[in-house]
Specification:
Elements lengths: L13 H8 L2 H10 L4 E4 L5 H5 L3 E8 L9 E9 L11 E4 L11 H11 L4 E4 L29 H4 L4 H21 L9 H14 L5 E6 L1 H12 L4 E7 L4 H4 L3 H22 L1 H6 L3 H14 L2 E6 L5 E6 L1 H15 L3 H9 L6 H4 L16 H10 L8 H10 L35 E6 L7 H7 L6 E6 L9 H12 L27 H4 L1
Parallel strand pairs: 4-5, 4-6, 6-7, 7-10, 10-11
Antiparallel strand pairs: 1-2, 2-3, 3-5, 8-9
Helix pairs in contact: 7-8, 10-12, 12-13, 12-14
Length: 519
């Protein structure tokens, strides 16, 4: 199967701050007084930031903003200034996604952000709990079972054909992560978008910026929406990159699965509308995906892999695994998706080894740029009192086993406590802030349906869908539109370039009808 990669500091108020922070005696005085919050000049934590000429600081703050004499958090802040600053342009603060993914060591990622915003200052950071922050909420063992970070071959999907057994494997690790962080003295209820929003606004003030522009990535767009909700006077304009909004992410998990399934069906509909041969191959394209799932439920695809010292291991791929894998790979596989569905329905499994990436199996998976404890703390804390009970989540998995492979609000039933967030935390922000939402056409998680919901309370929200691209779509059009939007956020952006990436031609290969007889 063919595969493709999917996967200006000009404010006068900031000048005295730079001088003060550069003075060791002043920094020492601040440390002695233990003033919080505070910002100290520090070496950059990564080679990528050093290579890009960043000015780096450490931000110190209370872990709990309501209890300033308790635990503290520290996090790195980097300011990257352009060679030729745009006149009077506010800085662009980047809100990283994941949640918990640190991009500070990823030079290519940072350079793309700089390209996106043009001749403007970029302020980026690891939020509280990230890998370069202190404390870092690390739970590395979770990588081995996570349906989000190791979705193709995680035991939550492939360990057996019994959903409750798969559920128990991952929830045991979630409980262990929670206990580990609590034993380390961390108040996990404070790692949420509400607390992060306060952190960012304090950093804005300490850097001397009156207002900022902001750019969120994926779940970082959800955190950005919270920032707009809690600090509306601090922001001029917002870019929601491939957004995953908290108040939508925290829906019952079956809702999210059905939204993704609709994206899959939309792709089949596109193929049938554009290619007569595709319509002939899938005359019942509206039912085709569910029928393929049912076929795999009756006769799962089983792969045998080498699993270190344990020897050979069997991986089981049923209908739920089909949903979960496509959720991650649609941007790479959409051209072959219609014929793959036809193959499965006919009992022809010859392409499933490539589709399920069997040769990429890793017996010891890692997610090194992720603070996985933060990932869980953020997802679950942002839910506040809206967390499901264990009975809620078990019932959801019983109704729809594919829920196991989706981003895991359902797992929060096994997390130990609610997040410390206001009651209105999961309300959509009501704001006149001009915003631009960017979506990928082949992104099952974060499509335009999210924008439609947020636009009800943010009337100045524009959006664009990038043809043929998935999550985190990268093309010239993206950067052109972001810069134009930042130049004048109240003007409609010219989205005529959104189709600059051509869709791959549909692969129309009728299934091997004899395969079912041979199996």
């Amino acid at each position: 199967m063919k595969r493709r990669e999917s996967c200006a500091w000009h404010w006068l108020g900031a000048v005295p701050l730079i001088v003060l922070l550069s003075s060791p005696s002043h920094a020492q005085d601040q440390r002695e007084e233990d003033d919080l919050p505070r910002l100290e000049s520090m070496p950059c934590p990564t080679e990528a930031l050093e290579a890009l000429g960043a000015t780096c600081h450490t931000f110190h703050a209370p872990e709990n903003w309501q209890e300033p004499n308790g635990n503290q958090v520290s996090l790195p802040v980097a300011v990257i200034e352009p060679e030729t600053p745009a006149d009077e342009a506010p800085p662009v603060f980047f809100f990283p996604g994941g949640p918990g993914y640190s991009s500070l060591a990823n030079r290519d990622y940072l350079e793309q952000l700089l390209k996106d915003i043009g001749e403007r200052t970029l302020v980026t950071m690891d939020h509280r709990g990230f890998t370069h922050a202190e404390p870092a909420l690390e739970c590395p063992d979770y990588a081995a079972v996570s349906p989000y970070h190791n979705i193709l071959h995680t035991p939550a999907i492939t360990a057996s054909l019994e959903p409750m057994h798969r559920l128990s494997i991952i929830t045991t690790e979630v409980q262990a992560c929670y206990r580990k962080l609590i034993d380390e003295g961390i108040d996990v209820s404070q790692y949420n978008a509400h607390a992060v929003s306060r952190d960012v606004d304090e950093i804005r003030q300490l850097l001397g910026y009156e207002r900022i522009d902001a750019f969120g990535s994926s779940t970082g767009s959800g955190t950005l929406a919270s920032f707009i909700q809690y600090h509306p006077e601090s922001i001029r304009a917002a870019i929601f990159g491939w957004p995953w909004f908290n108040h939508l992410r925290n829906r019952p998990p079956v809702d999210e699965l059905y939204t993704a399934k609709q994206t899959f069906t939309d792709v089949l509909a596109l193929c049938a509308a554009e290619d007569e041969a595709c319509r002939d191959m899938l005359p019942n394209w509206m039912q085709a995906f569910d029928r393929a799932r049912r076929t795999l439920d009756r006769r799962p695809f089983v792969a045998h892999v080498e699993h270190g010292e344990e020897g050979e291991k069997a991986l089981y791929f049923d209908g739920a695994a089909l949903v979960d894998t496509l959720y991650l790979t649609l941007a790479s596989d959409y051209a072959e998706f219609p014929s793959l569905v036809a193959d499965i329905k006919a009992g022809d499994y010859s392409r499933l080894e490539a589709f399920f990436r069997i040769e990429d199996y890793d017996p010891e998976p890692e997610a090194p740029a992720y603070a996985l404890g933060y990932f869980l703390a953020h997802v679950c804390s942002d839910m506040g009192s809206n967390r499901p009970s264990q009975d809620d989540s078990i019932a959801a998995v019983q109704r729809e086993p594919a829920v196991l492979g989706f981003e895991p609000p359902w797992l929060c039933a096994w997390w130990g406590e609610d997040g410390d967030v206001p009651a209105e935390h999961n309300d959509p922000p009501v704001s006149e802030t001009p915003a631009l939402a960017i979506h990928g056409q082949m992104d099952p998680c974060c499509g335009t349906r999210w924008r439609q919901h947020l636009q009800l309370t943010m009337p100045n929200l524009q959006y664009v869908e990038m043809q043929a691209l998935g999550h985190n779509p990268v093309n010239e059009c993206r950067s052109t539109m972001i810069q134009a939007f930042l130049d004048d956020p109240h003007q409609p952006v010219d989205a005529s370039c959104r189709d600059e990436v051509e869709r791959e031609p549909w692969v129309i290969e009728p299934p091997d009808v004899a395969a079912e007889e041979r199996s």
